Amino acid sequence: xxxxxxxxxxxxxxxxxxxxxxxxxxxxxxxxxxxxxxxxxxxxxxxxxxxxxxxxxxxxxxxxxxxxxxxxxxxxxxxxxxxxxxxxxxxxxxxxxxxxxxxxxxxxxxxxxxxxxxxxxxxxxxxxxxxxxxxxxxxxxxxxxxxxxxxxxxxxxxxxxxxxxxxxxxxxxxxxxxxxxxxxxxxxxxxxxxxxxxxxxxxxxxxxxxxxxxxxxxxxxxxxxxxxxxxxxxxxxxxxxxxxxxxxx
Length: 249
Prior knowledge:
Elements: H1 2-7, H2 49-56, E1 59-63, E2 73-75, E3 80-82, H3 84-97, E4 103-107, H4 111-119, E5 125-129, H5 133-138, E6 146-148, E7 153-154, H6 156-159, E8 172-178, H7 182-200, H8 224-232, H9 235-242
Parallel strand pairs: 1-4, 1-5
Antiparallel strand pairs: 2-3, 5-8, 6-8, 7-8
C-alpha cells in the first residue's frame, strides 16, 4: 500500500482493489496471463516425472481423507474418491492421458506422511497442502523444499484468527511437487491456472475446445487444457460440485 501510494499516480491507475493484499476476507482468485501457448517447447524430459507417468500409464496422487468432507473423502457407495483435492488430481491426469481415470490414489495419514511420500518419489504430487515459506524452502519433516501451485482454496475463517491459528490448520490449499523437476512443477502449476482461466472466460465442459492449445510441453500435450476442463470443468464448476453446499463461495 505504501509503495502504491508513493509511486503510482492514482489519477492514471486508481487502486481498484486488484492491487490490494488479500487479507482472507475475499475469495478472489484470478488467473495469470497465458502468453503465446502455441510456441513449441520441449517434449517431456526422458528422466522427468511427466515421462515416468506416461510410461507407467498412471498418475500417482497423494491425498489426505480424514475429516475432510468436500476436500477429499472416500464414497463407499460409488467406491470412488471425491472432493476438490481429488478433482485437481483428476485434472492433472486428464491433461496427461486424455482421461481422468488413469490415477493411482495414495492416502497419506497426515501432512508429514504426504511430504515424505513425495520426497521419496512414491507419488508424483500431493493435493490439498498449504503453502508457506518454511515448506517452500525447507519442510521440517524431510528437510527439503517443495514447489506449490497458486492456492485453489483460501480458508477465510482460519485467516481471521491468523497468526494465532494452529500450524495444523490449513490457511490455503495447493498442489505440491518436488523441486527437482521444473518441467513437471510447471505443468502442474498451469493445469491449476487453466481452471481459473476457464471460469474467467466462461469456458466449461461443453465449450472446452475454446481453451487454447498448449505446445509449450511439446505437441503431445497440446490438448492438456482442453482435456483437463473436459474432465472436471472450470474452477467454479469444481467448487460448486464439492464445496458450495458446505462453504458458500
